[in-house]
Q: What sequence folds into this?
């Protein structure tokens, strides 16, 4: 389906990443946002609060991030597309409800504008230290999708993509921005609404008496209904059967949790997305995401100018991770170089799939700034030498 | 002839509240003598007596013994996370204002871990009915002290007795802005049913506290006998005092219990306030939000 033209600010406009994210949500049809102020994400909800009254949206500033992260789930069962927005400490507070959304298969979007951590850390400065938390932060096992924009344009585009993926797989989707991307201002092209493709909510349309809230389709994703539709649904965070009733047995746990993982894992080829540049024939592949994918460019270009064969693989979707591609490349290249604004998170995933077939070098950074491209260049240079 | 007097059609429910319950989930988990089931019966009767379109009524619970209520009620029902039924209900109600949203949970869930949400939903006057079952203890986890445990009572985490003051919940609810506040006990089934019915009919944040026996974890540890003994206590020590100052409605260990309807007032709901404000602010450009 196409976007509702109401609220879509078609044209070329200067926006920071946070505001672009808000516009992306509006274009995606999001009409319920709950949030709590936290730097550097607040501008997203400020723009939403400004824009929603005249386009029929409901914004509510809740009493904390815990409330925000579950209010959006109530709103989804009430029939809305819904999102919450936060940063590090707030993201930590939302973990339990990411688990609830995964367990009860609530399509919704969580935005984390990453800042330096841990704890209060560096509230106004960038970090990329929440990447493993995005994958594993809530207790128990579940599948998740996380996207990494590197520009205001992508904050707009990927917010729409996040909503689409959440609807397609009935899963919470995490938009992993960072302070730099959130606060940089660039030109953003907002297409006409009829050129914005949206994935419609998968409402059940079969016979009422056969309806089961958690009975999956062939792609392992169950269709949904909303409260008030007359199905008398029961939704619980307890392990449940296809009807949604608590079923606290080993087989029920195996059936449900296995599917929550597999619906992402076995559909990964359709979800995984990355951008490659000069990877074929490269000796070294630099693996990046978010703002670091831009910071690495001068380093890569300098190395190439000096004759080194350097490829660039940028993660668009960080989770699920492009493990097949990394495995393929592992036997073709000498080394992978992974710059990230943390002391080693996504690099662990690269190492896991490279499995010793090539060197894997982290270019870590504690946060508060982006890398100096020279530091990335030096590691590339040393890696090419082998 | 008996056949003339009794409808023997076997497909008829044998109990009128059955249609409000998920009979396929019976038996329930509650202990013998527990008061929660009694309150559910009152709730079902209140629904029966209300004019609500049941297809548009949703129930939300948190976690705990009372948190299991949502799982037994034959409505759209949500068993959420510990303490967070109210913000879930806030999202549900504001997404679809056509729904009547009921939060049904326990004292620990709603006023300890969920206390922040309770006060803010009351302050905003989000249109929902909160039914709080107060059994003075954390039941599901094994009898730990709660913000409602009376002074000196024993709990598994206050084995030498509780020295913290407990909440006076009607006072809390009133001071935060609730438009309807009542307290009854599981002994007062008719009053409780009536109070729930009134709360359901009230627009805004309505609050009904119902004291209930927990024979397994509260009464036994405190040597108060069984569920029946606790009901006798409710019967003998309750004083109906409608419209009193809620400041005076504190509870004490096995002391007098003030019950009644304490607050029934009007305040604009969150949604009404928003629509009125934006209507004035934006004039014709604003379309009142209605989901």
A:
């Amino acid at each position: 389906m196409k976007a509702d033209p109401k609220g879509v600010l078609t044209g070329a406009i200067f926006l920071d990443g946070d505001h672009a994210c808000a516009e992306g949500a509006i274009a995606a049809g999001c009409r319920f946002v709950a949030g709590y102020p936290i730097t550097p994400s607040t501008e997203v909800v400020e723009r939403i609060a400004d824009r929603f009254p005249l386009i029929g949206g409901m914004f509510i500033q809740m009493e904390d991030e815990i409330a925000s992260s579950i209010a959006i789930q109530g709103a989804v069962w009430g029939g809305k597309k819904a999102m919450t927005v936060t940063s590090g400490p707030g993201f930590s507070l939302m973990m339990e409800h990411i688990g609830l959304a995964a367990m009860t298969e609530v399509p919704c979007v969580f935005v984390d504008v990453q800042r330096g951590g841990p704890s209060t850390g560096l509230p106004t400065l960038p970090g990329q230290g929440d990447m493993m938390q995005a994958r594993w932060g809530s207790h128990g096992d579940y599948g998740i999708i996380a996207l990494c924009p590197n520009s205001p344009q992508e904050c707009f585009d990927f917010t729409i993509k996040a909503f689409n993926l959440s609807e397609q797989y009935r899963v919470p989707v995490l938009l992993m921005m960072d302070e730099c991307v959130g606060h940089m201002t660039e030109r953003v092209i907002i297409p006409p609404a009829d050129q914005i493709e949206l994935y419609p909510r998968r409402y059940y349309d079969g016979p009422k008496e056969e309806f089961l809230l958690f009975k999956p389709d062939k792609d392992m994703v169950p269709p949904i209904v909303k409260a008030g539709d007359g199905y008398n649904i029961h939704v619980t965070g307890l392990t449940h059967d296809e009807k949604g009733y608590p079923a606290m047995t080993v087989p029920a746990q195996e059936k449900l949790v296995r599917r929550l993982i597999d619906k992402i894992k076995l559909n990964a080829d359709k979800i995984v997305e990355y951008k490659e540049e000069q990877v074929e024939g490269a000796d070294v592949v630099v693996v990046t995401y978010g703002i670091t994918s831009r910071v690495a460019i001068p380093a890569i270009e300098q190395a190439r100018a000096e004759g080194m064969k350097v490829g660039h693989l940028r993660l668009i979707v960080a989770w699920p991770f492009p493990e097949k591609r990394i495995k393929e490349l592992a036997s073709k290249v000498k080394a992978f170089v992974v710059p990230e604004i943390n002391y080693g998170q996504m690099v662990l995933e690269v190492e896991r799939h490279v499995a010793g077939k090539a060197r894997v070098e982290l270019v870590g950074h504690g946060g508060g700034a982006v890398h100096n491209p020279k530091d990335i260049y030096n590691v590339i240079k040393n890696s090419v030498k082998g | 002839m008996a056949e003339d007097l009794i409808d023997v059609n076997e497909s008829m429910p044998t109990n009128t509240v059955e249609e409000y319950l998920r009979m396929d989930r019976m038996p329930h988990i509650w202990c013998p003598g527990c008061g929660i089931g009694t309150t559910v019966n009152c709730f079902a009767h209140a629904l029966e007596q209300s004019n609500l379109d049941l297809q548009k009524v949703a129930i939300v619970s948190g976690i705990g013994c009372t948190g299991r209520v949502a799982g037994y009620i034959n409505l759209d029902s949500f068993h959420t996370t510990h303490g967070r039924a109210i913000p879930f209900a806030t999202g549900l109600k504001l997404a679809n204002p056509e729904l009547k949203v009921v939060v049904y949970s326990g004292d620990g869930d709603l006023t300890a871990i969920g206390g922040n949400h309770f006060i803010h939903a009351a302050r905003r006057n989000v249109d929902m009915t909160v039914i709080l079952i107060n059994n003075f203890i954390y039941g599901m986890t094994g009898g730990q002290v709660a913000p409602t445990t009376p002074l000196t009572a024993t709990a598994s985490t206050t084995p030498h007795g509780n020295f913290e003051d407990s909440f006076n919940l009607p006072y809390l609810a009133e001071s935060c802005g609730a438009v309807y506040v009542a307290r009854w006990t599981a002994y007062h089934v008719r009053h409780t049913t009536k109070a729930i019915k009134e709360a359901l009919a009230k627009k805004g944040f309505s609050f009904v506290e119902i004291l209930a026996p927990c024979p397994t974890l509260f009464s036994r540890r405190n040597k108060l006998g069984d569920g029946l003994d606790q009901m006798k206590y409710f019967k003998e020590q309750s004083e109906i005092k409608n419209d009193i100052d809620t400041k005076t409605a504190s509870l004490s260990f096995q002391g007098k219990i003030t019950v009644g309807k304490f607050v029934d007032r009007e305040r604009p709901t969150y949604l009404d306030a928003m629509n009125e404000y934006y209507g004035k602010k934006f004039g014709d450009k604003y379309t009142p939000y209605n989901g």
